[in-house]
Amino acid sequence: MEIDVSTSGGALLISLLRLLHIVGGLVWVGAALLMTCYVEPTAARAGAAGTSFLRAIYRETNLPRMIPLSAFITTLAGLLLYEMLS
Questions:
Q1: Cα Rg for the chain, rounded, in angstroms?
Q2: Secondary structure letter of residue 47 according to DSSP
Q3: Contact criterion met (CB below 8 Å) for 70 and 20
Q4: For the chain, percent helix, then strand, then coil, each to nearest 5?
Q5: What DSSP character marks residue 7?
Q6: CB 81 within 8 A of CB 3
Q7: Nearest to 39 by CA among 58, 12, 16
Q8: pLDDT tens, 62-83?
Q9: Quick one: DSSP state of residue 52?
Q10: What are the pLDDT digits (tens) for 16-72?
């Protein structure tokens, strides 16, 4: 699929996909690093209270859906950019 980036519609689509790819990647990596490097180790040191805290995070927030969704959006936008610009 080839997009004419010289048109305003093509340039807008490419810009939107780039924005989705960058922001999605930042959210994906940032959330994963935050959980892995800070939240989970701190909760493990807190014992039972930490376990309750993690359970609340995973049950009562959108975090379990946000990380895979941002990974999917990042990957899809990157693949579309690759297809359009190569």
A1: 18
A2: T
A3: no
A4: 85, 0, 15
A5: S
A6: no
A7: 58
A8: 988 999 999 999 999 999 999 9
A9: H
A10: 999 999 999 999 999 999 999 999 999 999 999 999 999 999 999 998 899 999 999
Q: Which amino acid is at 35?
A: M
Sequence-ordered strand ranges (E) for the chain: none
Each domain of the chain, given as residue ranges in start order, spans 8-85
Give the contacts of 3 (CB within 8 A, at least 6 positions apart): 10, 13, 14, 84, 85
Structure-block tokens of residue 5: 């980036």
Closest CA to 84 of 29, 14, 26: 14
Here the tokens at position 80 are 């579309």
Counted residue by residue, the chain has a size of: 86
